Amino acid sequence: MHAISFIQDLAVIMLVAGVVTILFHRFKQPVVLGYIVAGFIIGPHTPPFGLIHDEQTIKTLAELGVIFLMFCLGLEFSLRKLFKVGATAFIAAFMEITLMIWIGYEIGRWFDWNTMDSLFLGAILAISSTTIIVKALNDLKMKNERFAQLIFGVLIVEDILGIGIIALLSSIAVSGSVSPEEVFSTVGKLSLFMIVALVIGILLVPRVLAYVARFESNEMLLITVLGLCFGFCLLVVKLEYSMVLGAFLIGAIMAESRQLLKIERLIEPVRDLFSAIFFVAIGLMLDPVILWEYALPILVITCAVVLGKMLSCGLGAFIAGNDGRTSLRVGMGLSQIGEFSFIIAALGMTLQVTSSFLYPVAVAVSVLTTLMTPYLIRAADPLSLKLAQVMPKRVSRVLGMYGEWLRSIQPQGQGALLAAMIRKILLQVGVNLALVIAIFFAGGYFAPRIAEYLQGWMIKSSWQHGLIWGAALLLSLPFLIAAYRKLKALSMLLAEMGVKPEMAGRHTQRVRRIIAEVIPILSLLVIFLLLSALSASILPTNELLIGIAVVAAGVAAVLWRWFIRVHTRMQVALLETLDNHKEGGH
Amino acid sequence: MHAISFIQDLAVIMLVAGVVTILFHRFKQPVVLGYIVAGFIIGPHTPPFGLIHDEQTIKTLAELGVIFLMFCLGLEFSLRKLFKVGATAFIAAFMEITLMIWIGYEIGRWFDWNTMDSLFLGAILAISSTTIIVKALNDLKMKNERFAQLIFGVLIVEDILGIGIIALLSSIAVSGSVSPEEVFSTVGKLSLFMIVALVIGILLVPRVLAYVARFESNEMLLITVLGLCFGFCLLVVKLEYSMVLGAFLIGAIMAESRQLLKIERLIEPVRDLFSAIFFVAIGLMLDPVILWEYALPILVITCAVVLGKMLSCGLGAFIAGNDGRTSLRVGMGLSQIGEFSFIIAALGMTLQVTSSFLYPVAVAVSVLTTLMTPYLIRAADPLSLKLAQVMPKRVSRVLGMYGEWLRSIQPQGQGALLAAMIRKILLQVGVNLALVIAIFFAGGYFAPRIAEYLQGWMIKSSWQHGLIWGAALLLSLPFLIAAYRKLKALSMLLAEMGVKPEMAGRHTQRVRRIIAEVIPILSLLVIFLLLSALSASILPTNELLIGIAVVAAGVAAVLWRWFIRVHTRMQVALLETLDNHKEGGH
Q: What positions does the domain Cation/H+ exchanger transmembrane occupy (chains A, B) (predicted)?
């Protein structure tokens, strides 16, 4: 019977993992390391040999582990948190990722590894491990200190950027090359997809979950959550993105639901089960012979991770205006790699673009850096004191002045309010445009299939295209109108600020009005040009286009108020979901 | 990538199951039926075809579902509950199972099915569905009525008997025949195994769990629980019992741990996930063509289940002393088959002894009877009133008199106390003897391997046997001494009761003492003969036996007090675990 050998595998995994993790816990090491060591012990490369029979099924379950890990990461992530993390997180995460990818790539080249291996090594080193850091800060009881909060902010930004890296790597691995246009188009499409998925998801998913939750059956809620999770992952895979991205996104969407706490409680045991299998499966792949062979690269990369992350994150935190001690603690806290690195290394293996040694090397570096993490965090404070002593007075005064200068140039009072308003308007315009672009993309994507249906009573393909394009435009109208109104508000604001009576004298009002009218219309024109370019495949002939534009203008004029009402209602629903949650006492 | 088609399967299963179960829930039908229907919809036999790609992996996960279902059944089961359920449950369950196996077998033969199919059909019909009944009584808000409590008692006894049926069927399927000796030896070995597993398990497992629970990590507790569960299942499989039995037993053992509530909370989502897959996998196998072809048997069997269970359980409850109305309600509440039937049907399929139609037929009967369950429970009360009206006065008076007579012969006051004491002593003697027998069995089982080790310095195999047998006897001494002491207490009690001064006159004391001494020694002799027979494979020569007996007697005499102390300590530990739990507020 097939099932018995499978149960045997599970029994061995769980028993060995149980014993080893208990040992690791006693010696205050992260449980994750225990799993990897357990996998190493029962793996085929170390005695006793061959305790696992059905490696294929175990690997399939390990992939489920990745999905649940990312899903739970998404659940813990939340848009509100992202909006709150502030400049430090963005600057530090961005510096870290850029620098680490570059360092990793250079190290790979220096060891004469091929381009793809080097590139993946860079990506592997880019992102720190949320699991390990949370565990270490918990153990050290430092979770509530300021630097810990900054670290959590950096981790949130890293998650989003990491998702982008995975999408980029997949596309690069398939095309085999890196061109700036490609990077741009991948990042653009990815952002578009993420915005659209988040907007539609947050409008729909929490409502579905609230409906199911009314039945007060844990079982049904769990099945619904799993169905949505796997279903969305599948959709994402069909769109040729990674499943990991899908799991994270649907997690982030569900994080906005009122049932978040319950979902977390239900999904946690499932995640623990499958993530244990995932980490054990990592250990299964470790071969001491390979590790020994690559001892030098492993050591070099480990040093690079610790020093590189200390430097990049620390510098990033400092540039964003933190004092030296906090910056150093942020940098040293982030000095390790973990689950994200495994996922990226696994991606390279499944896409068959990286060499087989890369995965074990990544695991070894992760194990070493993880072991060092608690010591690094503890050493940060004494080290900063020592540095302050050793540093020449002048340097430290210059550094101190930088912080003061930074605080002095930050907009305050009315200025800060204005900046916040402008940011908010730009965000709204951006979201609306993303939805419009998505509608046109979808039109282009489904055009051949729609054309088939239309074949019966509309033979000319230009007419078909005209119809599809027109429908897309009609659907987009509420969002376009909303974008137009926001842009108008923005231009009025800018005109008010930019055109002072001292300059324009008695023309002030007129100049302001012209600016306030011209900017939104110009923007709309640009948007239409962009849309035409993006929907080139279904763009109708010019005559038709004019006809459509006239019809659309007519519809817009007639239904202007209705469109605004529809859009407002949707916006309110979206914001309610985001706010409701806040009331939920989280 | 293999994983994607697997994720797709999971997505389809969860999405369809989610939607269908929500619909079923709205129409107040059990979720389990929703899963089966969902499986039927996405199955290969109904349009749209082929929504499942990787049926093998799904089936493997479905087997995990069975394990988790039985494990949770074990968690809800508890020895204390079993001791409490009283005569009604035992009589009703025993009557139900015997009658239903016979009815099922006869129906099978009547349809000209072969012996094995008929036998499995009987077993499939034997056991009612805990899941369905709990759900229906919950929905009808009748959970706390007296007849519901009786039903739960019957279900607990059924679980134990069902486990026995599974073990019996496995052994019959392998040997291909049913002989009374075989049934006897299978049941004997099974009881022995269960007692020993429960005693050792309850001594060890709760302690392990308490140790792990001190780390306050849900993850580690879950992994430990799963490790113990799968590990024990594996052990049970190695002893050639069914995994189902193992899962149930380890669940029953963990039910005695203080961490029960936490374990249940952790394991529930995992069970829900896998049991959903299990029930969907059942639906996958349904083929409308086969169902249509076997429409007549399905209808006949459905009627047989409803009427047979009504009659057997109702009669059983009545015989045990309940009034007619309660008995009828008990009988009609138990009138369906469910998850146990699927497990037995699956057993027949994996052992390849039953025809392929049996499984779908069982599922169809389960679906029909499940649909009827709530209506039957509701109809029981009106029906009992109607029956009372229709019934001739004489018959109802006779029935009423039976109840009164039954109450009159029940031991009361001192008599009841005495009966309880005797029951308790017999139970203790039984457990001790089971442990002794298990020690000798283990000695026989491991003898060849031990003999290999001994080969070096002890060549004669008779000496080797002598050593092993002697060691087994030595290990058994504490239990033998305990059994002897309990037997002595029992005989004193019996002598006190049986030999009255009116009969024996002035010899009363002497006769009593003789009886009190003779009975335990005679019993010990019988026990030794039994042990010799059971350990025939390692029984040493007669001379050696005498030598061993002398040594053992010497050791027993010298260490008498120490043995008693050791045994008492173990007994206290066992009872503490059983009692501790009660304090735990469950």
A: 14-376
Would you say domain A70-266+297-354+372-380 falls under CATH 2.60.120.10?
Answer: no
pLDDT above 90 for A123: yes
Min Cα–Cα distance to chain B from A379, Å: 27
Judged by CB atoms within 8 Å, which residues 533-572 of A form the interface with B? none
C-alpha to C-alpha distance for A213 and B25, rounded to whole angstroms: 12
* Chain mean pLDDT for chain A: 85
**B218–A269: do the CB atoms touch at under 8 Å?**
yes
Delimit the domains of chain A by residue range: 70-266+297-354+372-380, 414-583
What pTM, to 2 d.p., does this model score? 0.82
Identify all chain B residues contacting A67, using CB atoms and an 8 Å cutoff. 7
Q: Inform me whether the C-beta atom of residue B94 falls under 8 Å from chain A C-beta atoms.
A: no
Contacts of B21 in chain A (CB under 8 A): 220, 223
- Cβ–Cβ < 8 Å for A55, A7: no
Task: Provide the mean pLDDT of chain B.
Answer: 85
- pLDDT tens for each residue of B468-503: 888 888 888 888 888 888 888 888 888 877 777 777
Q: Which of A554, A553, A563 is nearest to A481 (CA)?
A: A563
Q: Where are the alpha helices (DSSP H) in A499-541?
A: 501-504, 508-534
- Place B207 in a pLDDT band, splitting at 50, 70 and 90: very high
Distance (Å, rounded) from C-alpha A166 to C-alpha A147? 28
The CB density around residue B1, as the number of other CB atoms within 10 Å, is: 12
Question: Which residue carries 């580690």 as its tokens?
Answer: B220
Whole-number pLDDT of residue A2: 60
Q: Which of B53, B56, B60 has the highest number of chain A CBs within 10 A, making it the mutation to test binding with A?
A: B60
Nearest partner of B475 among B448, B435, B502, judged by Cα: B435
Residue B586 pLDDT exceeds 60: no
- Verify whether the Cβ–Cβ distance B269 to A267 is below 8 Å: yes
* CATH tag, B2-380: 1.20.1530.20
Q: What HEC string does B432-445 produce?
A: HHHHHHHHHHHHHH
Q: Is A23 on the interface with B (CB under 8 A)?
A: no
pLDDT bracket for residue B580 (50, 70, 90): low
**Would you state the torsion angle of the CA atoms of residues B526, B529, B530, B533, taken in this order, to the nearest 10 degrees?**
-170
Beta carbons of B22 and A276 less than 8 Å apart: no
Task: Encode burial over A301-340: b for 16+ CB neighbours within 10 A, e otherwise.
Answer: bbebbbebbbbbbbbbbbbbbbebbbbbbbbbbbbbbbbb
